[in-house]
C-alpha cells in the first residue's frame, strides 16, 4: 500500500525556491516505503529489485513516463534485476515536497510489479 502522498499533485519547488530543511520534510520521509533513504539532507535515494533485466527495464520506462508527465525527473540507474533512483529538485538544489510525491508515486508503480 503506497502513501497517500502519491495522490498529491507534483507541484514545483516551494514559492521561496529554497530546499526543505530536515524538520520540514521529516513527516513526508516517514510516509515513504522502505526502499527510500534521505541522503545528506539533499536527495532521496532508492533501490528497487526485480527478477531480471527485462522487468527492471519495464519499471524504468514506467518511471520515465511518470517523470515526463509530471515534468519532474529522477536520476535512474538500470542494472540486471535492479533500478536505482536519485530524486531531488535541481532548481532549488535540494528536496521539495514534489520529490516525496514522486517517490510515493514510484512506490505505487513498484507495487504493481508485485515484487
Ligand atoms: C528545464 C526543465 O524545465 C527543468 O529542468 C525541470 C524539469 N525537470 C526537473 N526535475 C527535477 N528533478 N528537478 C527540477 O528542478 C526540474 N526542473
TrEMBL record:
Molecular functions per Gene Ontology: 4-alpha-hydroxytetrahydrobiopterin dehydratase activity
Domain of life: Archaea
EC code: 4.2.1.96
InterPro entries: PCD_sf, Pterin-4-alpha-carb_dehyd, Pterin_deHydtase
Enzyme type, top EC level: lyase
GO biological process, one term: tetrahydrobiopterin biosynthetic process
Region (Disordered): 1-21
Transmembrane segment boundaries: none
Record flagged with keyword Lyase: yes
Catalytic activity: (4aS,6R)-4a-hydroxy-L-erythro-5,6,7,8-tetrahydrobiopterin = (6R)-L-erythro-6,7-dihydrobiopterin + H2O
Keyword Lyase annotated: yes
Compositionally biased intervals (Acidic residues): 8-21
One Pfam short name: Pterin_4a
Keyword line: Lyase
Family, similarity comment: Belongs to the pterin-4-alpha-carbinolamine dehydratase family.
Name of the molecule in the record: Putative pterin-4-alpha-carbinolamine dehydratase
Organism: Halorubrum tropicale
Taxonomic lineage from the root: Archaea, Methanobacteriati, Methanobacteriota, Stenosarchaea group, Halobacteria
Amino acid at each position: 500500500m503506497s502513501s497517500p502522498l502519491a495522490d498529491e499533485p507534483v507541484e514545483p519547488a516551494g514559492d521561496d525556491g529554497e530546499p526543505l530543511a530536515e524538520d520540514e520534510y521529516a513527516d513526508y520521509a516517514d510516509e515513504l516505503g522502505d526502499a527510500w533513504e534521505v541522503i545528506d539532507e539533499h536527495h532521496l535515494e532508492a533501490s528497487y529489485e526485480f527478477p531480471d533485466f527485462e522487468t527492471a527495464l519495464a519499471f524504468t520506462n514506467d518511471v520515465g513516463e511518470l517523470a515526463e508527465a509530471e515534468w519532474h525527473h529522477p536520476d535512474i540507474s538500470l542494472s540486471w534485476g535492479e533500478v536505482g533512483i536519485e530524486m531531488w529538485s535541481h532548481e532549488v538544489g535540494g528536496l521539495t515536497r514534489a520529490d516525496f510525491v514522486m517517490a510515493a508515486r514510484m512506490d505505487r508503480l513498484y507495487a504493481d510489479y508485485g515484487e
